[in-house]
Amino acid sequence: MPIDTEAQFTELYRANYEDVLRFVRRRAHPMNVDDIVGETFLAAWRRRREIPENPRPWLFGAARNVMLNADRSMRRQSALVVHIQLAAEAGGHEPAVDATARVDSRIDLVSAWQSLTPADGEVLALHVWEGLNARDAATVLGCTRAAYAMRLTRAKRRLASRLNPTAPAVPGAPALSPTR
């Protein structure tokens, strides 16, 4: 799907902007989202003749590359904010009564998710949050569909074992699937 005109690029932009924005919002610091999305579409404009027929995975891959090249100090700062928030929740601070049930129901999942490697988190996020099929997710990660499928299976098992550490690791255990 080489793009030859500004009108074609505008159509690509309008059709994919919201998806790219959601993809980046789930992964980047809120202050950086607009810059990353802008740089993603700038890269798309520069490489407009290389964009495949299905541009969504390509755009996600470009956004991922922009994020990987982002300032590492911002990642450390974000990690510090999460650490401080978890420490505040763990230290005598009582959440409001109506929020207690919500916190209790999600704390195990948050802890398990945060204990995953960034690679496992990325593979699961492409599956659960972005709803990509194996072929499109593999395009985002720059690997084969088979490699992505194997990484996804292993990441699901590792997350499941963290959610229920007493359960034996069974190769045929049911797979996690999106709840939304």
Q: Taking all residues together, what is the mean pLDDT?
A: 80
What is the 3D shape?
Answer: globular
Which spans have pLDDT < 50 for at least 5 consecutive residues? Answer: 92-98
Q: Tell how many strands the DSSP assignment holds.
A: 0
Computed structural class: mainly alpha
Largest beta sheet, briefly? none
β-strand percent reads under 5%
Q: What is the straight-line distance between the termini?
A: 31 Å
Oligomeric grouping of the chains: single chain
Order of helices and strands: HHHHHHHH
Helicity, as a percent range: 55-70%
What is the radius of gyration computed over CA atoms, rounded to a whole number of angstroms? 19 Å
Per DSSP, the total helix count is: 8
Topology overview:
Elements: H1 6-25, H2 33-46, H3 55-68, H4 72-90, H5 97-115, H6 118-128, H7 134-141, H8 145-163
Describe this structure in words.
- This protein is mainly α and about 180 residues long.
- The protein has 8 helices and no strands.
- Helix 1 (about 5-25) packs antiparallel against helix 2 and helix 5 (about 95-115) packs across helix 8.
- Mean pLDDT is about 80; it is low at about 90-100.
What are the main properties of this structure?
180 residues, mainly alpha, globular, 0% strand, 8 helices
Q: What is the gist of this entry?
A:
The protein is an all-alpha fold and 180 residues long.
